[in-house]
Specification:
The structure is a homodimer of 212-residue chains. Chain A has 212 residues and is α+β, with helices and mostly antiparallel strands. Chain A is built from 5 helices and 13 strands. The first copy, chain A, has helices spanning 5-10, 13-22, 72-80, 93-97, 109-113, and strands at 2-4, 27-28, 30-35, 41-46, 50-54, 57-63, 82-87, 117-118, 127-128, 134-145, 150-161, 181-184, 188-197. Chain A is globular.
Chain lengths: 212, 212
């Protein structure tokens, strides 16, 4: 099947949304935890979290335009300057999915969707007790994407909380062993199984695959 | 285990690189196909591809700073204005991984790593014959990220090539059925199995998870 730009534009809105959200491949499943100055908490599922760099440790995420609807996550991050990224354990995917409903600002998705707030001292954003891997970030940059009025939010890692036994001596995490999940499109969830690990690739050590 | 920003900075470089590249969760596994004006092709593995929007269909990817090393992918995209994103089939992960070796500009990773170039008319960038899902993009925006001198490259989908039987009536793709893979960190590969699908979440239809 070959769809051109024009074919894609001619699809009905829901099919285009589902298809184009699926074509980049598997996406990470994370819940973003925030609170406002009045300590009202918010939790929202994001599949657009992306690694930006290790030194300093920077992580990005894409925010939709404010025009559609109020964006509590963004408003809270601007108010407090901090937020958390929490992995979604496999046994909590249904609850995590429903944080995407447009609840009123007065409703905390922590309580409504059955997650437990967890705090560490001197850090204003709520972590999720039920998550295996939790990251506390400070907002360092907001990068506007003109092409469609979205925004790349850049955060610097301030805190990293994870099970010691999940981290190998070299710093790798086996996402299968901690029951991590991935997302495809807007609503499909996948379990992960590690099938291979390869060394750092150097030209002179690269096997000959030349098939011509 | 709780690591602060200072603890992370104090890790040795390789452990920090592996750990921070792992903490965002599973990442999509894609090969970026390009060629320069002289039709020398290039193929490079990227795990930072991210969905930006469906209408128009926009996809982002993160480029490392040019300072480290020559970036053939970026140079080629600037020369021709187009590039391809190709999913990595499970049976080709080793070959795909080795495209990350820093081969000389004269070496095409297509030939060196055993992939077959495929072209469609009036589109200058090479697709991968062996891939299940292939996307042809036109560069529309380069967004500098000041915090660490990286860049978000924004492309608009011009062509989408995929197996018709992999797409459901509503536009979903089962990534397990097409043997898609995910990446963790810099060198670990995962198979994917769909475990759940939930409806679009509306507040009034959201089950009660309140555990308090």
């Amino acid at each position: 099947m070959h769809l051109t730009k024009e074919d894609i534009q001619a699809l009905n809105r829901v099919k285009r949304l589902n298809l184009i959200n699926s074509i980049t491949g598997i996406k990470p499943a994370n819940l973003i935890g925030t609170q406002d100055k009045a300590r009202k908490t918010n939790l929202a599922i994001f599949s657009s979290v992306v690694h930006l760099g290790s030194d300093p440790a920077l992580i990005g995420m894409i925010l939709r335009p404010h025009s559609d609807v109020r964006r509590h996550t963004h408003e809270n991050i601007l108010e407090t300057g901090v937020y958390t990224i929490n992995h979604i354990p496999q046994s909590f995917i249904q609850q995590a999915h429903y944080t995407s409903a447009k609840f009123d600002k007065e409703v905390s998705e922590f309580k409504r969707c059955g997650f437990t707030e967890e705090y560490i001292s001197d850090f204003e954003a709520p972590f999720i007790k039920e998550s295996s891997i939790k990251i506390g970030l400070k907002l360092v940059e907001q990068v506007p994407i003109k092409a469609n009025d979205t925004m790349l939010l850049v955060g610097e890692v301030q805190h990293l909380i994870l099970p010691e036994e999940a981290v190998s001596k070299s710093g790798y995490i086996d996402l299968g062993s901690i029951q991590d999940v991935g997302i495809s499109g807007l609503n499909s969830y996948y379990s992960l199984e590690k099938i291979a690990q390869f060394p750092y690739a150097r030209p002179e050590e690269t096997p000959e695959f030349d098939h011509a």
